[in-house]
C-alpha cells in the first residue's frame, strides 16, 4: 500500500488527484492541507510514500519545507510539484522532486506521473490485498481468493470459505496489483490458477476446485489460458517422472 498526502489549496486539483488514485487499490490518501506546520506534522507522523505539493500557492516556502521534511522521511518517499509555470522547474530538480505537473493539471498527466512512480517502485507481490471503501479497510489473503467476477463497476471476490466479498472498484483496478498466479481469462473474470482443476477448450470454461464453479474464458485471453495449461503440463510431467 502506498500512502499519499496532498498540500494544495485548490479543490478541483485535489479532487482530480483523488479521482485518479481512487482507481488504484494500492494507493491510500492520508490527508490534505495547505498549512506548513500542519502538513509537516502529518507527513512526519504518517510517513507517506508520495506527497503532492502546489509550489505556487500552498505555502510560503515550499522548497524549504521539502528540504526539511526529507531529513526525516524514508529515502524512497517522493514529492510531485504542481505549478502554473515552468519557472520553478530548476529549483524543483535541485530540491529532488520526482515529477513536475503544470496547471491546469489533467487527469491524464496525473495518471502518467503515478505510472512513472509505480514503475520506479514496483508493487511487491503481497500475501494480502486491501479493499477500501471510504474509511473501511478490509484485508484479504490472496491465497484464499478463488476468482474475481466483474459486476458493473464493482468486483466480487469469491473466497475459499464460500463467502463472496464485494469491492467498489472495477476488475481492471485489481488486475495489476494481484500476484502473478491471478490471470485474466474473460472481460468479467480473473482466476487464481492455483485453484483451477480443469480447462475445457471445447466449452471455453475453467473449473474451480473447492467449489466446482465453472468460469468462462474467451479467445481474447487465449494466451493466459495456454500459459496456465502449459504450467500445469510441466508440473504434471515432473510429478510423473
From TrEMBL:
Organism taxonomic ancestry: Bacteria, Pseudomonadati, Bacteroidota, Flavobacteriia, Flavobacteriales
Organism: Snuella lapsa
Protein name per the record: DNA-binding response regulator
HTH LytTR-type domain boundaries: 129-231
All residue ranges annotated as the Response regulatory domain in the record: 3-118
InterPro entries documented for this protein: CheY-like_superfamily (IPR011006), LytR-like (IPR046947), LytTR_DNA-bd_dom (IPR007492), Sig_transdc_resp-reg_receiver (IPR001789)
SMART domains: LytTR
Source organism, top-level taxon: Bacteria
Amino acid at each position: 500500500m502506498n500512502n499519499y498526502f496532498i498540500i494544495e489549496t485548490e479543490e478541483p486539483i485535489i479532487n482530480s488527484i483523488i479521482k485518479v488514485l481512487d482507481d488504484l487499490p494500492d494507493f491510500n490518501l492520508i490527508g490534505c492541507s495547505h498549512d506548513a506546520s500542519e502538513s509537516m506534522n502529518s507527513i512526519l507522523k504518517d510517513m507517506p510514500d508520495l506527497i503532492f505539493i502546489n509550489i505556487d500557492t500552498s505555502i510560503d516556502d515550499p522548497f524549504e519545507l521539502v528540504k526539511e521534511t526529507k531529513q526525516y522521511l524514508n529515502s524512497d518517499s517522493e514529492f510531485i510539484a504542481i505549478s502554473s509555470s515552468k519557472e520553478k522547474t530548476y529549483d524543483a530538480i535541485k530540491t529532488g522532486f520526482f515529477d513536475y505537473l503544470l496547471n491546469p493539471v489533467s487527469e491524464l498527466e496525473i495518471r502518467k506521473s503515478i505510472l512513472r512512480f509505480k514503475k520506479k517502485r514496483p508493487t511487491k507481490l503481497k500475501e494480502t490485498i486491501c479493499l477500501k471503501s471510504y474509511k473501511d479497510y478490509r484485508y484479504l489473503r490472496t491465497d484464499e481468493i478463488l476468482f474475481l467476477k466483474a459486476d458493473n463497476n464493482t468486483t466480487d471476490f469469491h473466497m475459499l470459505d464460500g463467502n463472496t466479498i464485494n469491492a467498489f472498484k472495477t476488475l481492471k483496478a485489481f488486475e495489476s496489483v494481484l500476484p502473478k498466479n491471478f490471470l485474466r481469462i474473460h472481460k468479467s473474470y480473473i482466476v487464481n490458477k492455483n485453484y483451477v482443476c480443469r480447462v475445457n477448450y471445447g466449452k471455453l470454461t475453467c473449473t474451480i476446485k473447492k467449489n466446482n464453479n465453472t468460469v468462462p474464458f474467451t479467445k481474447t485471453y487465449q494466451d493466459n489460458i495456454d500459459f496456465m495449461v502449459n504450467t500445469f503440463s510441466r508440473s504434471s510431467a515432473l510429478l510423473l517422472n
